[in-house]
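Quiz preparation item.
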């Protein structure tokens, strides 16, 4: 028998409940009618990296050493993309395997590179930015069998997202969704996995771009619903759990924190003549994408054009990814990485009488200024500005100095260039903290329950009668369980913390972020 977990990246009840109630998503409606469901509170910030690992470890970013897509190295003042090797914890399926419960994982972001470490008893089909032409699986021999069973399996879409029509995006999404479910069923049927997790990442991509096309989004979810219905009918399905790493909401305002810092003089740049020259002669990122798309060379370009070259092309909006900017670290006091973490460059205060005290005073003033900042419409930019110690547990290795919790509907990309407020890109919607949770099956309760993302790993471990690592941050939620799992005591097991196996191995991550629109 098998437990299935279906991860729907960015899924939000504001879309799914009305469609289910209207009869458009009968499988989702069945789960809501027969099982347990509720909101799932994500981490801060609510982004793919590290939210998926927060789910699979049951820990806050402070115990994982990863807070966003990128990391800031204070020692050498450099920025690098995170990947699977940067996370300092084992995942719940590794704990299951220790107890003889074999697991399979399909397409979860944060699992690349697939061979970041050995995991006996766990099959991994890595998520983006993995590549089916390179190391895709762990064990590596699994790739051959997977591609025999699902010959068309692809990790990433084979189209230029910015140039695709709504119909093309949905059609591509349906193909990818089918491949994810096919891979999950292959792991259950041919590899005898006792638990299978599969992530549908393209839901996030569609919602970013098609939030104003609800009928197209519904058509995409209807294909997911068809496959979910088949999953629910499988003879081996003990239980099916649904979850998302975060929710989604319409963008009300764009705020560029690094542009704001730059205009204050807190973030300083050196001259970058190469990008300016390319822009002058009309060689922009968008125009390059259109040429590649028309020539049918998307897959080839993704494989052959290194991120260092991609980063030279400016956006037509005038924005530059902060990771590509020529930062003057001798003058820079602070930098924002992603949609929340802000780092103070302590080296900028080295000449002060008391450098540590000067950096602290600056951090306190920056907090006050962010808390007071409003959009042009008079709405607070941030709902809160947190001390990382208040939202993260553990040693907070490589942690930020501030964590900005942006007001729902305010999108805060890390790019620079243009106005501080208001310049929209192709994204129409952004993340919010409230995602989805639902479950149905043997020993799963009925009704409603709201959970934290960190609760899922310990709850699933306990459901399968496996000790819960003592260093998790989440709780075993008995209110989503029934029968023996709800009644028996929680057994505590050894900690699941580990060391990072390698730092700074994320070039492929950067290339994928550009393709998806996370970098300008």
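Solution:
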């Amino acid at each position: 028998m098998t437990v299935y977990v279906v991860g729907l990246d960015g899924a939000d009840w504001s879309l799914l409940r009305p469609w289910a109630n209207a009869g458009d998503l009968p499988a989702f409606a069945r789960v809501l009618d027969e099982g347990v469901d509720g909101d799932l509170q994500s981490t801060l910030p609510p982004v793919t990296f590290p939210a998926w690992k927060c789910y699979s470890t049951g820990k806050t970013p402070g115990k994982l050493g990863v807070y966003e897509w990128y990391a800031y190295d204070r020692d050498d003042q450099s920025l690098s993309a995170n990947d699977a090797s940067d996370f300092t914890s084992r995942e719940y399926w590794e704990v299951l395997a220790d107890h003889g419960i074999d697991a399979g994982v399909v397409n979860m972001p944060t699992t690349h590179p697939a061979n970041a470490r050995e995991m006996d008893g766990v099959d991994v089909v890595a998520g983006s930015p993995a590549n089916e032409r390179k190391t895709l699986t762990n064990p590596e021999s699994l790739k051959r069998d997977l591609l025999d069973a699902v010959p068309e399996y692809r990790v990433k879409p084979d189209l230029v997202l910015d140039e695709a029509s709504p119909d093309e995006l949905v059609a591509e999404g349906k193909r990818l969704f089918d491949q994810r479910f096919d891979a999950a069923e292959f792991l259950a049927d041919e590899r005898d996995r006792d638990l299978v997790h599969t992530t549908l990442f393209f839901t996030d991509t569609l919602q970013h771009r098609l939030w104003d096309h609800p009928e197209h989004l519904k058509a995409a979810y209807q294909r997911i619903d068809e496959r979910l219905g088949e999953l629910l009918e499988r003879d081996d399905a003990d239980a099916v759990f649904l979850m998302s790493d975060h929710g989604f909401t319409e963008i009300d305002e764009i705020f560029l924190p690094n542009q704001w810092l730059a205009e204050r003089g807190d973030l300083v740049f050196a001259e970058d003549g190469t990008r300016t020259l390319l822009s002058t002669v009309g060689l922009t990122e968008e125009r390059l994408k259109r040429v590649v798309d028309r020539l049918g060379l998307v897959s080839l370009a993704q494989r052959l054009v290194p991120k260092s070259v991609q980063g030279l092309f400016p956006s037509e909006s005038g924005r530059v990814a902060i990771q590509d900017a020529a930062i003057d670290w001798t003058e820079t006091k602070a930098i924002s990485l992603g949609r929340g973490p802000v780092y103070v460059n302590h080296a900028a205060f080295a000449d002060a009488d008391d450098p540590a005290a000067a950096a602290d005073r600056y951090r306190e003033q920056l907090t006050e200024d962010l808390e007071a900042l409003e959009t042009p419409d008079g709405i607070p930019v941030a709902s809160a500005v947190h001390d990382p110690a208040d939202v993260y547990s553990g040693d907070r290795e490589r942690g930020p100095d501030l964590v900005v919790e942006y007001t729902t509907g305010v999108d805060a990309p890390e790019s620079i260039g243009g106005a501080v407020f208001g310049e929209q890109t192709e994204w129409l919607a952004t993340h919010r903290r409230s995602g989805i949770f639902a479950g149905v099956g043997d020993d799963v309760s009925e009704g409603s329950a709201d959970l934290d993302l960190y609760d899922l790993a310990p709850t699933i471990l306990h459901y399968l009668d496996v000790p819960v690592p003592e260093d998790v941050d989440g709780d075993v939620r008995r209110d989503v369980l029934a029968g023996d799992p709800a009644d028996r005591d929680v057994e505590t097991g050894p900690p699941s913390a580990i060391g990072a196996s390698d730092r700074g191995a994320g070039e492929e991550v950067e290339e994928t972020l550009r393709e998806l629109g996370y970098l300008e």
